[in-house]
Amino acid sequence: MNESDCQRVKSDLAVAGITNYVVLNPGGGWRSKCWPPERFGELCQKIRSELNVRCVINYGPGEESLAATVKSASGNADPFLYNRELGQLMALLQGARCIVAGDTGPLHLAIALGTKSVAIFGPTNPARNGPYPPQHFVLRDPASATTHKRETQTNPSLLKISVAQVFDAVKLQLGASA
Predict the structure, then answer these.
(1) Which CB contacts under 8 angstroms, 24+ apart, belong to 13-21?
(2) Directed axis angle between helix 105-112 and helix 86-95, to 10°?
(3) How many domains, the chain?
(4) Which of 100, 128, 130, 105 is nearest to 116 (CA)?
(5) What is the mean pLDDT of residues 130-140?
(6) Residue 116: pLDDT above 80?
């Protein structure tokens, strides 16, 4: 990340009218470890309506339809879709108040940059992959079976994590009342 990356992100966000934001990263390499995009959309609505914070939806190559589904499910929350190069992603993550993501590269990168996180884990084990509490919230169904099997459907354990649980963790990370 260099100064031009930081300036590009500042410019992109300024054009969108964003100064205060949470990054939502719905992707994650394989579908079985991804929380449903509709839930990310509902979370985006709650963050905007109850906390008055905009969401930036980060997505990677080939995840355009995933990002579009989150945006559609966000109603009038007006999330900003963002897909840039690594240096610009780093600048975006470093400026975020928090990231909400599954076990994926942008989550781990945000943590390395000092960004607060809410990590949603399903079949992969956070004890192995991190992030590590107390500065990061990790949500995982205690009955989740650990597997690294790449499947095309959301792992059922992820469906046990509610939007309300994730929103409460975001509020705590942002210092809002839970």
Answers:
(1) 13/56, 13/80, 13/95, 16/54, 16/80, 18/54, 18/56, 18/80, 20/53, 20/54, 20/97, 21/53, 21/54, 21/55, 21/56, 21/80, 21/95, 21/96, 21/97
(2) 60
(3) 1
(4) 100
(5) 70
(6) yes
Q: What is the number of residues in the chain?
A: 178
H or E, element range at 55: strand 54-58
Please check the confidence at residue 131 and state whether its pLDDT lies above 70.
Answer: no
DSSP character at residue 172: H
Q: Mean pLDDT across the stretch 34-56?
A: 96
pTM: predicted TM-score of the whole model, two decimal places: 0.91
Q: Is the pLDDT of residue 178 over 60?
A: no
Tally of CA atoms within 13 A in the half-sphere of 57 that contains its CB: 28
How far, in Å, CA of 77 to CA of 80, rounded?
9
Read off the pLDDT of each residue in 49-68 and give the average, rounded to a whole number: 95
DSSP alpha helices (H): ranges in the chain?
3-15, 37-51, 64-73, 86-95, 105-112, 126-129, 163-174
Phi, psi angles (nearest 5°) of residue 78: 55, 55
- Identify the domain containing residue 59 by its residue range: 3-174
CATH label of the domain that carries residue 113: 3.40.50.2000
DSSP string for residues in 109-129: HHHHTT--EEEE-SSS-HHHH
Task: Look at residue 149 in the predicted model and tell me its pLDDT.
Answer: 67
